């Protein structure tokens, strides 16, 4: 059984766009519950300015109060040096940096050019100076909702530049659900043939959204290509302002349920995870897109109607 | 570009479980709109007893009033000889028979044993006597919500028995969304190595539900295995009484959008289809699960916010 490593991003990527503040106690309890499910990594929160993302204004308190389970890495999003200092102070196990590989999306999302982002994130890496592993998440790697196609070579080049300045791993993000399986297969093959070729120890993760229903098909293309690390968001929380009404991130439990059925070792206690997933509608105050929490596992059987018993 | 053939089942498999009767005029207009989209086949309705499926009590009238577009096959579900007579009278291009490969599900769904179903459907095939092509849909081929696992050999055996008595094609149905991609790959390979080996002209189609989010991943596994025929339901209409709140059939437009992006020739005018898909919530009076109708195609771009323009 091949091992797959799951990174849960609901409390960061999911919560950050929720309209209603999730109380700190609830966040801590949720991360603690997730810690018991077998994740390799949990992206707990974001050390961004509280003005930029008010939903995550309690980042320091959440990181201080969660119960750390050995074997689980607690990562945090860090946009700049100030965030990195807070993350180091909070003893995060990893810092996750973000840059979009689309100039227009980077300016829309981070209010600066890609060149400025790269310089600023280089400063963060220098500041951290090897004390904590760093991951770079490359947004819009499969297309930009404003620019359209993003050339694959462009993604490879940016991944290489970050790997050259000292990240431990990188996440190729389909930020707005534009990737399709053939594109995923080509991207994975190209990364394996370039950036990863002489640095196989680099951690490569894929981050998909289900905006157009292709999320789990893209996960399938990823595992078929040999990828072992995936981001997911419990309940399918998260999303994209350009697709109102559509699904957000892939649902962790749906992806894990599929990988589990396919015979992969996800390390996850799926029944426990579904128990947590079923709390999500109450936590965020609305329905969530995840399907398995509603439908049950494929192994959950139902009683036959009495009249169908053979006479 | 490899050709993929799409069979639209929304007006039969979708409508049959809707709580509110869709007016005959609306059904006819919908089928006529679908006929302009490039489908290979449309499953228009079901010649079942009006008492069993009141939603489709206007089957004869719908079949009589739709505009036939050359190149599109108009198929109908037929449960018995009475239905077959009505279908022949209505000049259907194909009769679609249904049997579950799970004894318990067949009894629950069709109120008879599989042996009785096979005998009754054999009588239908004799009655039709080659005048119209016949398809057999094998339900629960990837698992039964009551019995659980259905052995693959069992599915192969039933497919073989129906092929031996004169069907033109067969549809392997994941009736309640229990299939996963590895299972689909194995099933396809096994069918190609047995039933289809000496009868390559037999039409093999796959019918998936998205109950647990795996629908398009299963389509991907299918096309990777060389399958060229798929059922889909506009908007993702349809479903399963055992999974309240979960998705139904795979959404035709989401599946076609993915196949189109991957470079397959689906024969479908996707923009026209999305126009029809966007009418579905009004037609059935509730939201539908299809994603692309909400999110737009991956090629639909959005304007950049003005402040992101480089100074």
Automatic annotation (TrEMBL), chains A, B:
Signal peptide: none annotated. It comes from the Bacteria. Residues 4-274 form the Pyruvate carboxyltransferase domain. SUPFAM superfamilies: Aldolase. GO terms for molecular function: lyase activity. The keyword Metal-binding applies. Keywords: Lyase, Metal-binding. Belongs to the HMG-CoA lyase family. This is Hydroxymethylglutaryl-CoA lyase.
């Amino acid at each position: 059984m091949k091992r797959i490593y799951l990174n849960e991003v609901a409390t960061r990527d999911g919560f950050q766009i929720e309209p209603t503040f999730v109380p700190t106690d609830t966040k801590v309890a949720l991360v603690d519950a997730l810690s018991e499910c077998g994740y390799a990594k949990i992206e707990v929160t974001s050390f961004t300015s509280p003005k930029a993302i008010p939903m995550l204004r309690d980042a320091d308190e959440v990181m201080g109060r969660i119960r750390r389970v050995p074997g689980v890495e607690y990562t945090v999003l860090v946009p700049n040096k100030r965030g990195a200092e807070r993350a180091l102070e909070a003893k995060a196990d990893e810092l996750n940096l973000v840059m979009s590989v689309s100039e227009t999306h980077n300016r829309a999302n981070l209010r600066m050019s890609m060149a400025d982002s790269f310089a600023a994130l280089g400063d963060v890496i220098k500041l951290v100076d090897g004390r904590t592993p760093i991951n770079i998440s490359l947004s819009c790697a499969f297309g930009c909702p404003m620019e359209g196609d993003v050339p694959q070579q462009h993604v490879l080049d940016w991944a290489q530049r970050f790997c050259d300045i000292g990240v431990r791993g990188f996440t190729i993000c389909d930020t707005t659900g534009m990737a399709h399986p053939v594109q995923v297969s080509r991207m994975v093959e190209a990364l394996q043939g370039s950036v990863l070729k002489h640095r196989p120890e680099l951690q490569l993760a894929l981050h998909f959204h289900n905006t157009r229903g292709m999320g789990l098909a893209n996960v399938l293309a990823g595992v078929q290509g040999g990828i072992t690390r995936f981001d997911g968001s419990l309940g399918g929380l998260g999303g994209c302002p350009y697709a109102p009404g559509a699904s957000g991130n892939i649902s962790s439990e749906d992806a894990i349920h599929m990988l589990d059925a396919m015979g992969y070792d996800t390390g996850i206690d799926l029944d426990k995870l579904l128990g947590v997933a079923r709390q999500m509608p109450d936590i965020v105050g609305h329905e969530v897109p995840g399907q398995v929490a509603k439908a049950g596992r494929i192994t959950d059987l139902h009683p036959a109607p009495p009249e169908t018993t053979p006479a």
